């Protein structure tokens, strides 16, 4: 096998437990999510809502032959830019990534509740 067919494929657990809209459906226990990922033959996943922290997660993944591919981390922002100390926020994100055995930190801006009012708008 070579090329794309040889690449490990993962799935984001937001499919089961929506982070942005937590009341969208009933909360699915993390063990069920990991069991589903293994049954569907995914190689791994992103850190998800309700997953155990720190050393508790590694054995759960290992038992199912899964890996934690990434941790999604947001930096708070508003229309004026970043809020707080971005370096400190990133250090906190990296520390969390390492504590759960993740491989990649994915960083995005979190515009907050007022995001829709200013996102994609052009000033006159």
List how many beta strands DSSP finds.
Answer: 5
Helical percent range? 25-40%
Overall mean confidence score, pLDDT: 85
Helix run count = 4
What's the SSE pattern? EHEHEEHEH
Ranges where pLDDT stays below 50 over 5 or more residues in a row are none
Kindly name the structural category: alpha/beta
Biggest sheet architecture: 5 strands, mixed
Radius of gyration: 17 Å
% residues in beta strands: 15-25%
Shape: globular
Task: Please report the distance between the alpha carbons of the first and last residues.
Answer: 54 Å
Word description of this protein:
The chain is α/β, with parallel strands linked by helices. The chain is built from four helices and five strands. Strands 1, 2, 3, 4 and 5 form a five-stranded mixed sheet that branches. α1 links the parallel β1 (10-11) and β2.
């Amino acid at each position: 096998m070579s090329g794309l067919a040889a690449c490990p494929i993962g799935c984001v657990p937001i499919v089961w437990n929506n982070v942005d809209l937590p009341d969208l459906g009933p909360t699915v226990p993390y063990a069920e999510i990991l069991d589903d990922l293994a049954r569907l033959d995914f190689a791994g996943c992103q850190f998800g809502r309700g997953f155990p922290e720190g050393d508790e997660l590694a054995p759960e993944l290992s038992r199912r032959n899964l890996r934690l591919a990434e941790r999604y981390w947001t930096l708070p922002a508003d229309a004026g830019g970043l809020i707080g100390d971005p370096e400190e926020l990133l250090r906190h994100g990296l520390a969390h990534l390492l504590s759960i055995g993740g491989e990649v930190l994915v960083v995005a801006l979190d515009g907050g509740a007022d995001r829709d009012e200013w996102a994609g708008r052009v000033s006159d």
